[in-house]
Design a protein that fits this description.
By secondary structure, the chain is an alpha/beta fold. The chain folds into two domains: 116 residues, Urease, subunit C, domain 1; 287 residues, TIM Barrel (Alpha-Beta Barrel). Helices cover 36% and strands 21% of the residues. Helix 6 packs parallel to helix 7, helix 7 packs parallel to helix 8 and helix 13 crosses helix 14. The two termini are 28 Å apart. Bound molecules: N-(iminomethyl)-L-glutamic acid and fe (iii) ion.
């Protein structure tokens, strides 16, 4: 067995062994680490780790490849459980409109936003979408992401939604990291259905969904359940239809209002409900009654300049939290999970330990990949990153705006950016 060893590690983070349930409440503060450590990998997996004095000269000499971490941290790669990284082009013109005073919802209501992205994507060839998304995938891997979920939702017609999902499938085939694919036909109501949105819901249920399932293109189903987008009743119908086909859900909820989305998600045993800027007592008690993961996307609140989700209230109620980037051209044009955790600490008062756990192991749970990625444990995929020499993991959210990575390791090998 050809072994790769990383040694001279200042802190090896997330050495928490088997974790069978998402970390919640005060357990989120528990981020075990080893000081002055090493880790060995082979066949793409973690095979051993320990403290420096337990590393024999013999093992080091026999290794196929040896990497000196020079006192840097080694951490499990980020598990980014919510992205829209397949898109045809960026939307900085809307960014400027917002600077001048228009809101995200006003721009969307005037045919911009998601509909704008859908118009461009419709006319963009599949190959081109694969190429640009593949670049973004490598961009996030080089910033330490080791597993990712990607949504459709810029198609909004049967043909274009299937095209987007095929792009995600092509990425899955080429990707060195695990990808989960989510069907988000219910991302926005297309212009042609504005006077009768239920007809679009019918199209999703009766035409899109059977094809998506038949072609095996989705792991999950999603709905943007919010003011001006889809109602709780419509969401209920779509999730019900998805469930009939065996699709579990991960939904957008309560970004723009107390939309009822959280309750609908919990009712349908959604894997996660995401955004949650508008979360009060009723939403927290709904979450406490189920197993659905509350997933927070602080980059979106930052970029749209809206209220941040009440992470403290959610965690202090004893719930788990996952953090994700929401990488997309409209509300979060960055997949830098270091920035995600910085915002979580600075604006949502999460402790560095909580933020790191929420962006790794809890993110893995939000993609049902907890047996494969998310922490440092023997048998897990060797997806991790080595930081520059820094004094402690508190530096990571503190040094906002940076991704202080020296090397990303994917499947036990040094990742080369494209
Ligand atoms: O997660 N909120 C809904 N969907 C995306 C934004 C998509 C867009 O504006 O293109 C989000 O923020
Ligand atoms: Fe999103």
């Amino acid at each position: 067995m050809e072994e790769t060893i990383i040694y001279n590690i200042g802190q090896l983070l997330g050495t928490s062994g088997t974790i069978s349930k998402p970390l919640k409440g005060t357990d989120l503060q528990d981020l075990p680490y080893l000081k002055d450590a090493w880790i060995a990998m082979a066949d793409g997996k973690i095979i051993a780790f320990g403290t420096e004095k337990e590393l024999s000269k013999e093992r080091l000499n026999k290794a196929f490849k040896v990497i000196d971490a020079r006192g840097g941290l080694v951490a499990p790669a980020w598990c980014d459980s919510h992205t829209h990284l397949v898109f045809a082009r960026s939307r900085e013109e809307e960014f400027v409109m917002r600077i001048k005073g228009k809101s995200y919802e006003e721009i969307a209501a005037a045919g911009g936003g998601i509909l704008n992205s859908a118009n461009v994507l419709r006319n963009t060839p599949e190959e081109e979408l694969i190429e640009s998304a593949y670049k973004r995938l490598h961009e996030i891997i080089s910033m330490g992401t080791g597993a990712v979920e990607i949504k459709s939702g810029y198609g909004l017609s049967t043909e274009s939604e299937l095209k987007m999902l095929r792009v995600i499938r092509a990425l899955k085939e080429k990707s060195p990291i695990p990808i989960k694919s989510t069907f988000l036909g219910a991302h926005a109501v297309p212009h042609a259905y504005k006077s009768d949105p239920d007809k679009y819901v019918d199209l999703i249920i009766n035409e899109m969904l059977p094809k998506v399932v038949d072609q095996g293109l989705a792991d999950y189903i999603d709905v943007f359940c919010d003011r001006g987008f889809f109602t709780p009743e419509q969401t209920d119908r779509i999730l019900e239809a998805g469930a009939k086909f065996g699709l579990k859900s991960k939904i957008h909820a309560n970004e723009l209002d107390y939309s009822g989305g959280i309750q609908i998600g919990v009712k349908h045993k959604a894997i996660s409900v995401d955004h949650l800027e508008f979360t009060g007592e009723a939403e927290i008690s709904a979450l406490l009654s189920g197993e659905t993961m509350p997933t927070l996307l602080p980059q979106t609140a930052f970029f749209l300049n809206i209220e941040y989700p009440p992470a403290r209230k959610i965690i202090d109620a004893g719930l788990p939290v996952a953090l994700a980037s929401d990488y997309n051209p409209g509300s979060s044009p960055s997949g830098n999970m270091f920035f995600t955790i910085a915002l979580a600490c600075i604006h949502m008062k999460m402790l560095p330990e909580e933020a790191i756990n929420a962006a790794t192991i809890n993110g893995a749970f939000a993609m049902e990949l907890e047996n494969e990625v998310g922490n440092i444990a023997v048998g897990k995929r060797a997806n991790l990153w080595i930081s520059e020499p820094v004094s402690s993991y508190n530096f990571l959210p503190y040094a906002f705006g940076r991704a202080p990575i020296k090397t990303t390791i994917i499947n036990g090998r040094v990742h080369q950016n494209i």
